[in-house]
Amino acid sequence: MPRSLWTGSLSFGLVNVPVSVEAAVRDRDLHFRQIHEKDGAPIETQRWCSEEDVEVPYDEITHGYELDDGSQVVISDLELQAIEPRRTRTIDIEQFVELDDVDPMYFDHPYWLVPASDDDGAVRAYRLLTEVMGQTDRAALGRFVMRAKEYLAIIREREGALALSTMRFADEVRDPKDVEAATQKAHKPAKKELDAAVAVIEALTREWEPDKHKDRYRSRLRKVVDRKRKGETITAPDADKAPEAAPDLMAALEQTLEELQSARA
Amino acid sequence: MPRSIWNGTITFGLMRVPIKVHSATEDKGVHFHEVHAKDGARVNHRRMCSKEGKEVPYKEVARGYEVRSGEYVLLSKEEIDAAAGRQSREIELEEFVAAGEIDPIFYDRGYWLGAGDDGADAYRLLHDALARADRVGLGRWVFHNREYLAAVGAHDDVLTLQTMRFADELVGAGDLELPSPSRKPDPREVKMAGTLVDSLSDTFDPGRFHDSYRERVLTLIEAKARGEEPELPDEPEAAGEMDLAAALEASLKGR
Description:
The complex is a heterodimer of chains A (265) and B (255).
Chain A: E1 4-12, E2 15-23, E3 33-36, E4 41-49, E5 61-66, E6 72-75, H1 77-82, E7 90-98, E8 107-115, H2 120-136, E9 138-146, E10 149-158, E11 161-167, H3 191-203, H4 216-229, H5 249-264
Parallel strand pairs in A: 1-7
Antiparallel strand pairs in A: 1-2, 2-8, 3-4, 5-6, 7-9, 8-11, 9-10, 10-11
Chain B: E1 6-12, E2 15-23, E3 33-36, E4 43-49, E5 61-68, E6 71-75, H1 77-81, E7 90-92, E8 95-98, E9 107-115, H2 120-133, E10 135-143, E11 146-155, E12 158-164, H3 187-199, H4 212-225, H5 244-253
Parallel strand pairs in B: 1-7
Antiparallel strand pairs in B: 1-2, 2-9, 5-6, 8-10, 9-12, 10-11, 11-12
Helix pairs in contact in B: 3-5
């Protein structure tokens, strides 16, 4: 059972549902510790004062912010705490939106929301909100404060529970207008090309099966560790050869379709 | 738009689409550095050998994977990088799936794709074909010595790439302890909640939401720069027990 990262209440209108925030992602990465190669001893990080050349105990550390002119403003923990928003224990639903209207680019980190109280009214309110959002394909937007930072969150029904995702703010998503997207008329594909490309895509279309896609990096890294443990030498595979020049679009599409058809026959 | 962070080729079948990858997001959070409170000097992090008590130069640092308590298998950075697989400049779209089938929970980081050199026609063709078929292409992307599962799709005028979380990294709802209410919400409650959701519904306008915490941190920094003193916080209020139907009714009355 994952432990709660946050507890508080979810409120919409005058309804308050005690909820806790739980992790929706588990870290499966292999983690390494820094080791001094010479003697195999773990490396410890120490904080040293750049002026006095002495180690600085943790309680003597504060926060510095460098201004544009190079001068520094020092901000203490207490001062940062003082600007934390007052209602730190509530997720206030400010509005509901059509889930499809929200670009996944705004989704940041996913969590689950679970009822944090056995109070029957509260549990029923959680069910009620889950059902209503699921039936209407709506998502709720609200704000909450976790670990001294305010987040915008999107809450929606997923697998019969409430999924919460923190969101990026509008100015944290870059405007793609400066990306070279070849929108000039001259690059518009001919109908024949577009039809052929769509045919290739459709021939290669499969059901989305998330379990089918494995983290090959993680398993290779595990293998590297195992081989090293047995005393083997590890060398990196060669780089791929430089890619060939792009052939004629239509010829490539036609040949791809032919190959896909003969593979199926 | 800042410079691209990766250049390469997307392939599907025999098609080759030269592309440039740009980050679609940026962290606007306010970051501080550590300072020694006493003298305002920067704090540096030093790598110290726990046996010798001496600082360790970066080139003498190995990565240790703990196989038993206190027992490490040592790997060099190059050996870890070997796990990236082939250093490929290609993203091969191996299959396509319906765009709406992938839940956003699978999306990790987002990127905008631009057309690479001599690739404008192929870029447009892939974009328009994905948009018309309403599909995203799935492939593997090797970036910074790590292989990612990536989804390539059409977004308005541009192609996007999203790195993806693997299914075994996600906690399912089945892993949660969800209490059941003694009775299901009754039709009156469902109707009232539906009305409440409707009355609070609006179009999604990301520009409406500002990072007010970030704004407060920046205001605090400015005030401190002028030598002003900040205020102290109030205590948060606690929530009590509730009567669901009454709360729904009262919420609707207020509208």
